[in-house]
Amino acid sequence: MTTALLSTADELHARVRHGRRAVVMTMGALHEGHATLIRAAREIAGPDGEVVVTVFVNPLQFGAGEDLDRYPRTLDADLALAGRAGADAVFAPAVEEVYPGGEPQVRITAGPMGGRLEGATRPGHFDGMLTVVAKLLHLTRPDVALYGQKDAQQLALIRRMVRDLNFGVEIVGVPTVREEDGLALSSRNRYLAPEERATALTLSRALFAGRDRHAAQEALRARALEVPSTHARAEALSAIGESRAAADAHAVATAAPGGPAAVRAAARQALDEAARFDPPLDLDYLALVDPADFTEIADDYTGEAVLAIAAKVGSTRLIDNIPLTFGSPGAAL
Are 212 and 325 in contact (CB under 8 A)? Predict the structure, then answer.
């Protein structure tokens, strides 16, 4: 299959459409994570539909001192990867095509969620991201658009914008793709020297430590629910290797499902253990949040959550996250 390279919206609009159009938005420097998105788009669009990959390095998303100038631009390689993954077209407009009058006077505002976590560290970033996503949705006119869950706050804001402003498009999130050592795939990984990459693995290790603690507590709680008496419950907890919890079975039984505080503590411990690394990890934030608004969850929270982390290693800033589910409404003893 030949993948068309398009640079103007007129070229894209002139294409005859059959079936659904699925769009994957990128800033280029495509890797296997993007390929996964494109393959998912191909499956959704079906053999009669169309998959369009956008490649546009959006200047509005970069703040002072960020890496706009050195952000990798690899269009030929991007076109080849997109084609192998199943894209029908790559839409790679110039800045003048997307912003014909210069920087737009009217922009999308991300609201309160846009000022938290990533937004607090990078003021204005999400306003610029939503503005270009809105523009590209209008320019590409898709039925469905796919985004990676690695950028969880971005995905949440796009979903909110589409809902609040009545965009007629379906938004699909695709799970994070990781390298064999656990590092989340990112175009910025190529900036890491070998010793920096070893430090960068702390991000995923901290997340996995929180996830594993959550899984252990959920398993412990499920076992505790199976036995009615305090004495029997303590014996059951001890039998599955949770001697500390067995010492206070009542506290385990009445604790919030999964223990958000324990998840945070486990992730923090993994970060503390990496304090001796050279180069060091410069932590920006570790947060356990409600994906609806990215506010920190309480210890009695039930439902979906996101454990998110951001840090700098050398001059490279990386983000990562994992989804968690705490109990279920009405599950308390």
Answer: no
Q: Which residue has the tokens 């706009």?
A: 68
Measure the CA angle with vertex 176, ends 173 and 181; round to 5°.
175
User: Is 34 an active-site residue?
Assistant: yes
Locate 252 and state its tokens: 């385990």
Q: Pick out the chain residues at pLDDT < 50.
A: 245-257, 329-333
**pLDDT value at position 99?**
95
pLDDT digits (tens, 9 = 90+) for 192-227: 999 999 999 999 999 999 999 999 888 877 776 666
CA–CA gap between residue 269 and residue 45 (Å, rounded): 44
Res 251: pLDDT? 45
| Tokens standing for residue 201 | 């693995």
Q: What is the DSSP string of 194-224?
A: HHHHHHHHHHHHHHHHHHHHHHHHHHHHHHH
pLDDT of residue 165: 97
118: its two tokens: 């990533």
Query: What is the distance between the terminal CA atoms of the chain, rounded to a whole angstrom?
Result: 58
Residue given tokens 């390929």 in the structure block: 35
| Marked catalytic residue, from 31, 34, 125, 214 | 34
Query: Residue 12: which H helix or E strand, with range?
Result: helix 9-13
Cis peptide before 280 (omega within 30 of 0): no
